[in-house]
Amino acid sequence: MRHGKTINHLGRTASHRNAMLSNMASSLIQHKRITTTVAKAKALRKFVEPLLTKSKSDTTHSRRLVFSVLNNKETLKELFGTVSAKIATRPGGYTRIIKLSATRLGDNAEMCIIELVDFNETLLEANNAAEAKATTRRSRGKKKATAEGESSAEVVAEDKPAKKAKAAATEVSAPEDTATETLKDGETREEKAAE
Fold first, then answer.
1. Which Gene3D superfamilies match (predicted)?
2. In terms of CATH architecture, what is 14-119?
3. Which string of DSSP letters, residue by residue, matches 26-61?
4. pLDDT digits (tens, 9 = 90+) for 102-135
């Protein structure tokens, strides 16, 4: 049983697992997308995301920490050069796992693609196109709303004197209405006041 065991050991010793994850992280950083099994991809995500976060601050200390894990100078240049510039504004979630329908022929393992989110050009173009369409609609709506808002403000400004005049007329006419009001006995107020 695996009660409380959160790390997937992947059927390897600690040194073998760390070397494999280091090599996979280097490949992911250099190629931006790799195909592997789902189990390895989930383990790699936990392994590589802290390294990507460390690359955001380009200091000697962070470079040494990352190099102690990756042990590859070309990968380090790529990570602190192009990758860190693209992920600078992203607050985490740098990788995406896309499961494939095909399984591996030898052992029927589930396969997937793990990629860096900011380097998938097709999805970025689709998102930019959707945002461009959405902003166009919103800007038109705001222009119409402001135009309607101005016209409605003008109408309200014009209606205020008319409403005041109407209110004054109802105040004047109110006593007249009460004067002709009939009481229970059928007498009017004027007749009652004369008595």
1. Ribosomal protein L17
2. Alpha-Beta Complex (3.90)
3. HHHHHHSEEEEEHHHHHHHHHHHHHHHHHHTS--HH
4. 999 999 999 999 999 999 888 878 888 887 776 5
